[in-house]
Design goal:
six-stranded antiparallel β-sheet, single chain, mainly beta, 6 strands
Length: 89
């Protein structure tokens, strides 16, 4: 695979909080496609995800839907995984 697998799409560009950078607001969505899992020994496949993130730099909220197609050469198995994800960083 060549190039970068994803992109972030800002919904609104907001000014950097120079006095307290952790208070800088964030609001964006992203698309991440076809990341190659073959760089990890014993597995292959791809990772894709779509989602959005927001909040402030000190406390980022993420909502995503990751999708994995995993080919395990060690276990001789193919798995497709997809589940909603919500996290606070």
């Amino acid at each position: 695979m060549t190039g970068r697998p994803g992109k972030s799409i800002p919904r609104e560009l907001r000014p950097w909080a120079t006095e307290d950078p952790g208070q800088t607001p964030l609001d964006a969505s992203y698309i991440f496609n076809n990341a190659d899992l073959g760089v990890f020994k014993g597995i292959g496949g791809t990772l894709s995800s779509t989602g959005k993130f927001g909040g402030i730099l000190e406390q980022i909220e993420v909502q995503a839907r990751p999708m994995f197609l995993i080919l395990s050469w060690i276990a001789a198995a193919i798995r497709f995984l997809s589940t909603p994800l919500s996290a606070q960083l």
